Amino acid sequence: MSFVHRYAQDTSRPTLRSAGGDLARRALAPAVGLWAVIVGLGTLIRGPLDDLPAEDTLNAELAADRTPAMDQLTALWSNIGATLFLIVTCLLVIALVWWRTKEWWLAVVPGIAVSVQAAVFVTAAAVVGRERPSVEKLDEAPPTSSFPSGHVGASTAFYLTLALLSRRIADPTLRGLATAVCLLVPVLVAYARLYRGMHHLTDVLVGVLNGVVCAGLAWHYLRRRERRTSPGRARRAVASR
Questions:
Q1: 178 and 166 Cβ atoms separated by less than 8 Å
Q2: Cβ distance 56 to 124 under 8 Å?
Q3: In sequence order, which residues have a C-beta less than 8 Å from that of residue 112 and are 6 or more positions away?
Q4: Nearest 5 degrees, angle CA 228-CA 234-CA 235?
Q5: How many Å apart are CA 207 and CA 189, to the nearest integer?
Q6: What are φ and ψ of residue 87, in 5° steps?
Q7: Angle at 219 between CA 213 and CA 223, to 5 degrees
Q8: CB of 202 within 8 A of CB of 52?
Q9: CB 168: neighbour CB atoms within 10 A?
Q10: Which residues of 137-160 are buried (b: 16+ CB within 10 A; e: fewer)?
């Protein structure tokens, strides 16, 4: 069964109980392993790698090249990955997909991706406790530590699931445009967080990792089965043509 089209290839209706069990086994349990990997990387960076001082050069260069126009653009891009914006947008998407498809198990996928990502990010950031770059910051620093980037992780998880949902759009031009925009947004958010002095490069890269894995876990959380046609039904279908 195709990973991208798994919800179109099998439209059977799961029960809430079976979906909950699948969620625990196929998304939440693997997320624990993801958390361990992220914490391990953060511990390595903060310990043996001495907080990767070479990354300070990139932050300093970006800060030195700031312009008023890019300050405004990156403020917009950064806000696209902000918590409140993503929560409101995610709830609207869930409601819209549920209304259009009548498939609640599909509609909740973006919410699962964002929620699992947030749980991994918040707890990992608390354990790692990395300081933010030592340059002028253009945004107010949230209470979480720098590693990994929550803005980048959340936007990657959310917009990647939207890109997958966009593959259901019938019009090929609109489908391609929607997919491209959804894939571009996390890139803009990642650049904005670097430009605005809020994160180191590895914070952003591991944020992308967190978002990609959580989007994949959310999209794959529900067991889907290829529909099988019985031999008798197949013969009747052929005979009726």
A1: yes
A2: no
A3: 23, 27, 217, 218, 221
A4: 160
A5: 11
A6: -65, -50
A7: 120
A8: yes
A9: 16
A10: ebbeeeebbbbbbbbbbbbbbbbb
Contacts for 202 with CB less than 8 Å, ≥ 6 apart? 41, 45, 52, 55, 147
pTM across the whole model: 0.89
Tokens describing residue 50: 């001495």
Selection from 37, 151, 139, 22 nearest residue 84 by Cα: 151
Place of tokens 């997958």: 164
Amino acid occupying residue 24: A
Per-residue pLDDT of the chain (241 residues; tens, 9 = 90+): 688 888 888 888 999 999 999 999 999 999 999 999 999 999 999 999 999 999 999 999 999 999 999 999 999 999 998 989 999 999 999 999 999 999 999 999 999 999 999 999 999 999 999 999 999 999 888 888 899 999 999 999 999 999 999 998 989 999 999 999 999 999 999 999 999 999 999 999 999 999 999 999 999 999 977 655 444 443 443 343 4
Q: Which two tokens stand for residue 220?
A: 């794959």
Which residue type is seen at 137? K
How far apart CA 67 and CA 73 sit, in angstroms, is 10
∠ CA 105-23-86 to the nearest 5 degrees? Answer: 65
DSSP letters of 152-178? Answer: HHHHHHHHHHHHHHHTT-SSHHHHHHH
Q: Residue 163 and residue 43: Cα distance in Å, rounded?
A: 32
- Contact between 60 and 69 under an 8 Å Cβ cutoff? The reply is no
